[in-house]
Structures are given as structure tokens and as C-alpha cells.
Amino acid sequence: MRVLKTLAFGLAIGLGVAGARAQTLDCGDDTLCKVEATKVLKVGTKDDYKPWSYRAPDGSFAGMEVDLANALGQLLGAKVEIVKVNSANRFEFLAQGQIDLMIASATDTAERRRVVGFVHPNYYSSGYNVVLPKKVKATKWEEVAGQTICAIQGAWYNKPAQEKFKIELLAFAGTAEVDSAFQQGRCIGVLSDDNMINVMLADPKWADYHMPLPTQDDAPWGIAVRLNDLDKPWGVLVAGAIANWHRSGKLLELEKANGIAESAYLRKMHEALKDHLPAE
Amino acid sequence: MSETTILTDIFRWLPFVLWGFALNILMSILAIMLGTAAGVFLGFGQISHVRLIGRISRLATQLFRNAPWLVLLFYCIFLMPYSFTVSGVTYNVPSWLRATLGFSVPVAANFSEIVRGAIGSIPKGQWEAAEVLGYTRTVTLFRIILPQCVTRMLPPWMNLYALLITATPLASIVGVDEALARTQAAVQSEVQPGFLIPMYLTLLTMFFLYAYPISRVSAALERRFQTV
Amino acid sequence: MLEVFRQFALDLKASGINLTILYDAFDFERFVSGLMTTCALIVICTLFSILIGGAGAAVLALSRGPAAMLVRAYVALIRNTPLLVQMYFFYFAVGSLMPVGQNAIGLPVPMIGNFTWAVIALSLYAGAFNIETFRSGLGAVHNSYEEAALALGYSRFKAFRYVVVPLGLRFSFASLANNLVDLTKSTTVAYAIGVAELLYVSNQIWSDSLNTFEMMNVMLAIYLLLTGIVVWIIGRVQAAMSLPGFGAN
To answer: CA neighbours within 13 Å on the CB side: how many for C54?
Structure first.
């Protein structure tokens, strides 16, 4: 009987923590309604993708994607709760409802669109490439065929890079492991998106490395909502917010503020959407 | 990079990692409680004279004892609904709580075996004697057999707990923000190269300081009850 | 035959069950290679862990000096810290201190790869549990056997080697089976350091095709089969070695 009592107590703690945020809502599966009622916006971002999303020593999140989440929270008058996701679980987290919005440097692909709703316009764009030590003089992908290259589990380009260029992939759950493995020479290069590599190479720590191969399959990143929200108020609101950020130049601004070199995609989108009347 | 700066950096990150470790402890305590309770029922089920219950309990025990913890965790994280609604009130089940459920499944299966083993270790004669004296099977189990089993079950139960606490970092792989995940985030944010080894050593020490006393107590209990 | 499977899998996909491993050659290939890696891990680590367990238990039984202390410290350290953290620690921390070779294009390459580190970590882990198992197995052999052997003129070592060990081994089987099942399950942890075993490839496949549910069921079935095989093999060995009158079962 003691066991049962302690169990009941334990369950009470567990559900107490979970139930603290329990709400009575009549929103059905309308996420916008839920966010407005609870004044809480749960956004999934990674915590190892500096400078897009990473951790400060006090445990808080920072980076360009976190800034976007906060901008949206401000717009809605909601408190932003950042939920840590990784490449291998982000779509499941969104589909399950653990997060209302995913801003996790996810490339917008056809396979993924069957599972989550990518809102348009896209907010960023990148292709994939390999960062290599300067000692490696390869300029064509064919020259790295058969070599071991580190990567992050769940990245969309892992499969095409393996299939097309026959590289040996050594994949880890997070960037921390990838960087350590690379620095210890466990792979000759890191497969990553070209923006990320550009940011890395700007750091003097990586002075002996370069990105000599042509970037492959440039593809846009998408902010995602659940599929059933895509054409509902929530999806449309997020789409509008992104379009406004392109138009106003906020995305270019945040990119600069986070120390990322200006990307051609953001410039192009800004030119396409900017106001046709000159500013006052 | 001098040693003092590494030390101050570790101290800077220590509270962050320790809060993660608190989550490891919370998960392990909840999982051992849930698993023990479920394991008692499964264990009783295994010795049940109702054939169907016996068979289902044995199947469940074997199934969950032999499945990798990590696979069960993936199940609980990805396939369990994130929130459920009871009479209009929506409860959220955060990922750490679902991971806890994922841990309690193998714990239940292992404890079920401990219960079955302990009950089996009581001489058959006692059951027969109780039957002759007119006790029902349930009364015999609860009043005569189980009180003798408790001391036999305690050491393996504590070993199971030590196994459980050292398994909790697996939750980092499915995205729970516990001590290992936080150590990795710290290593990632701190660019200095000498930081990785001391951070991992700190983490190992944390677990050792918590788990080792438990194993010692368990071993001491085992020795004490051995003469029974 | 393969074509039939392919068609079956495509039909399944149409009905919502997406088993890419049956119709996508790339996924099939990596799945099979993952399964092979898992099997290799199980076999190699089983052998090493039994060797470690036997050596450690022998040291504990025969010596009381610093060697026994060392073995006890090793068992305590391994058993009371998480395998996953040990794995990371070996691979990233100890691994960074190890000698480095050169690959074909002159780049430094560690001599010890991630598969080897996984083998080392898993063998040391399961080995620590096996030491405990063999130690208590030897402890279960009643003193009178050793005394009888000594009385017959055996030296202390020979009495241990020819009388105590064979009996103790037989007392250890149930617990050894348990440890080896645990080892089989623990090979999934090698996933964390990028060893392309079953969980790793399954994760890659469901990340690409987003068929998480299907892949997890396939994986669960395979692990149950593998642990079943391990239990069966130990049962056979136990039966082959059983002595009349010894071992409760």
C-alpha cells in the first residue's frame, strides 16, 4: 500500500507540473485562437546553430531565429516560449502540438510538406557544401567521393550528398559532436549549409579551412505550422508576418545584427517586395 | 588558455548543468515509482492462476525487458500524444514527462521479474501450509508471502534504480533538456578547445556521486539479507 | 522474389504504410548494413566482455592486493555512471589524446575509429557487469569443494582453475544471459557517436522519408528477435554444459 501511496504522490507531482498550464479552451485546432487565449507562443528552435539559434550561459536562447520568434510574439502580445528541437525530432514535435511554430533552419522540401505546413514566403535560403581543410585542394565533388565527412543527423541533404557524390557520412545528433569530431580529424570535412559554413569561416579559429566545392541544390528554409493550420488564420498570419519582414528589410537587419554576411536570397526578396514608393 | 579560465568557465555553466541534472533525478524518481507500481501488478500477473492474465503478463514482461531502452524512448516521444483533454481541460505532457513514461516501461518489466523471482524463492510448502489452514490465495500472498519478499526485493530494486539513473541521459537524444544535453550545449557555446574534457568529467562525477552511495547501500543490504 | 516484396511495399505505401527499406534500393542497402553492424557489435563485445568479466573475477577471487582494488574501482566507476556519457567521453575526450595516422591524401586520421571506440566502451561496460556476475557465481560455490580439492593435493590455483571455476561458471549462466541481453540492447547507444548501427540507419531513414512509425516498429521487432537469439544461444550452451545435480534449473 505504501507503494501505491508514493505512486499517487508521484503522479500528482507529474501531472501537477503538466497541469499547471492546463487551459479550458474552445479553440478546437485553431492555433491562432489558442495563442491569443493563452498569451503563450511556443516556438521550436535548435540550440546548436549559432548564430541562427544557440544558448547563452544563463540557459536562454539567442540568435536570428529566436529574434524572429520574439518579433512574432510581440506582434501577438504573447509570451514566447522557446522549445529546443533538433533536426531529427522537429517535425514530430510540431505535428504533435508541442510547439505552435517551427523556426529551426528547416529546408522546405516536398517530403516534409506531407508532414508539416511550410508557410510562404520562405524566410531564408541555403544550399549544401563541405568545409574542408585548406590542405585539401579538391574543387570538384567527385574528388571527395569515398571520404568520410561529418554531418548532422536529420539534415535534408544527407541523403542526396551520399547518393550523388558517394561520400561516407558520419552523422551526429548535434553540432557540438560534429565540431569535436571534425577537429579531432574523424572526418575530412563537414557537410553543412553554405550559410553556416560562411559564418564559421569568418571566425579566425577556422582560418585554415575553406569551402572550395560548388554549392549544391540551393533551397529555401521555411517556417512551419501544423498542416491543418496552413490555410487557416494561423498560417496566413505567419505568412503575412514573414512577407512584412521581407518588405521592411527586418530580415536583412536581423541577419546583419547577428553577424551573418548578407545573403543573396534575402536581398532578392527584399527587392521584390519592397515598397514601390520611396520612403518619406 | 590557462587552467583558471577553464575552471571559471565550468563554474559559470555549472548551475545550468546542475538544473539539468535535477531533471535527471526527477525523471528517475517518477519512473521508478511508476515502474515499480506497474511492475508489482505485472509480477502478480505472471504468477496468476488465470491462464490469460498469466500469459499476457509474461508476454508484456518479456517484450519490454528485451526491447532497447532507447527504442522505447523513441516510441514514447514520437508516438504518444502531446496533450490530452479530459472534460474540456487540456493537459500538456511535456517531453521530459513522456521520456519518464518511456523509462518506466522497462523498469516495470524488470521489476515484474524481480517480484516473480522473489515470490518463487519462498518455499512452496508455505503456500500449501496456508491453504491447509484455510487462507485464500490472495490472503496468503499479501499476509504471508509478500512480507518475506520485501527484503529480498530491496537490493535488486535499488540496483534497478542505479541502472535507471544512469540511463536517463538517453533522454537527451530524444530532445529532453537534461544534464547531458546541457553539457553539450555548453561545450558548443564555449569555443575554447580545452573545455570539452573537463565538462564531461564534471558530468560523470555528478552521476557517480549520486549513484555510487545507492549501489553501496544496495550491496550492504544484499549481504545482510543473504543469510535468509 | 525481390520484385514481389517491392510491389508489396509499394502497395503498402499507397495504403499509408511507407516501408522505404523494401522498395528503395538505397534505404534497403543502408538498413542491411546497419543490421550487420549491430550484429558485429553484439558478437565482438560479447566476446570481449566475457574475457574482461572472467579476468576481473579471477583477480577478485585470487588476490586481495592493489589489483583487486583496481578492479573494484573500475566496476564501481563503470556501473555508476551513464553508458552514454562514457561513450562520449571515450570518443571525444580520450579519443582526442590518442595517436593519429595519415590517410591517402595526407590528412591526419585517428587510428581508432568510432566503431572501435564503441566496442571499447560497450565491452568495458558489459565487462564490469560480467565481473559481478562471475564473482557471485564463484562465491556460490561452497567452500567444501575447494577444501576437498586441496585435500586431494591440488594447489590453490589448480583447485580454483579445475574445481571452483567450472562450477561457478554454471552458477553464473542466468545472470550472464541477463547481462548479454542488456549488452545487445545497449548497442543502440553507439548511435550517439555516429556508428552506423541499426538505430542510426533507421533514424536516417525516417529523417529522410518521415516514416517514423513504420521504422520504429521494424526496429523493435528486430531487436526482440536479436535478444531472443542471444537468450536461445545461452540456453543451448547452458544445456550442453549442465551437470546432473547442479544449477537449479
So the answer is: 13
| Residues A224, A230: Cα–Cα separation, whole Å | 8
Q: Which helix (H) or strand (E) holds B36?
A: helix B3-46
**C80 contacts in chain B (CB < 8 Å):** 162, 166, 207-208, 211-212, 215
Q: Which residues lie below 8 Å from residue A189, measured CB to CB, with a gap of 6+? A: A130, A131, A132, A133, A136, A144, A147, A149, A150, A182
pTM score of the predicted model:
0.80
A9 lies in some domain: no
User: Do A42 and A112 share a domain, yes or no?
Assistant: yes
User: What is the rounded radius of gyration, in angstroms, for the C-alpha atoms of chain B?
Assistant: 22
Whether A185 and C108 lie within 8 Å, measured CB to CB: yes
Q: How far is residue A179's CA from residue B103's CA, in Å, rounded to a whole number?
A: 30
**C-alpha cell belonging to residue C135:** 564473482
**Interface pTM, i.e. ipTM:** 0.82
Q: Does A3 touch chain B (CB under 8 A)?
A: yes
Checking if the pLDDT of A20 tops 60, the result is no
Which of C76, C28, C84, C49 lies closest to C230 in space, CA to CA?
C49
Q: Is residue B86 part of a domain?
A: no
Asked if A21 lies within 8 A of B92 by C-beta distance, the reply is yes
Q: Closest residue of A to C104, CA-based?
A: A147
CB–CB contact A92 C212 (8 Å): yes
* pLDDT tens-place string over residues C13-72: 777 777 888 888 888 888 999 999 999 999 999 999 999 999 999 999 888 889 999 999
Does residue A94 belong to any structural domain of this protein?
A: yes
> Which residues partner with B89 through β-bridges?
A24, B86
Say if A202 falls within a structural domain.
yes
Is the CB of B89 less than 8 angstroms away from the CB of A22? yes
Neighbours of chain A (3+ CB pairs under 8 A): B, C
Q: CB neighbours of A213 closer than 8 A, spacing ≥ 6?
A: A129, A130, A132, A138, A139, A140, A141, A144
- Answer yes or no: is pLDDT of C5 > 80: no
Q: Provide the 8-state DSSP code for A50.
A: T
Task: Determine the Cα–Cα distance for residues C113 and C119; give it in Å rounded to an integer.
Answer: 10
Boundaries of domain holding A91? 29-123+222-273
pLDDT in tens, A207-258: 889 999 999 888 899 999 999 999 999 999 999 999 999 999 999 999 999 9
In sign, the C-alpha dihedral spanning A224, A229, A233, A234 is negative
Min Cα–Cα distance to chain C from A85, Å: 14
Question: Does C136 contact B at CB distance below 8 Å?
Answer: no
